[in-house]
Specification:
The chain is mainly α. Helix content is about 45%, strand content about 5%. It has 6 helices and 2 strands, in the order H-H-H-E-H-E-H-H. It has a two-stranded parallel ribbon with strand order 1-2.
Length: about 110
Amino acid sequence: MRAYDAPFPDKKYKAGARAFPRLVPMHPNDPASEANRNAWKVLERWEKPFLTTFSNGDPITRGGDAYMQKRIPGAKDQPHVTLKGGHFLQEDSPVAFARAINGLLATLS
């Protein structure tokens, strides 16, 4: 926690980070929606290996893995995993997270 707090002398300096969730488009007319639609046009043609490593405890991203696996061609037949934790898997399941990524990388060498 101290590392996260290090660059911020007090709470008022964290206003930007607290605003990030509001930047996620929730409706088709949200300002970021067009950029997301354009990104999906690319992802729906993505043939390179695409691995999802989602958590079992993040209510915001829950179900996103299945959605991505269905829509992104490179996700087919990859060793997708659901790990124990919340939003920050690198903290909650660091070893399993690294193993999943390294496992995919090993298949690419």
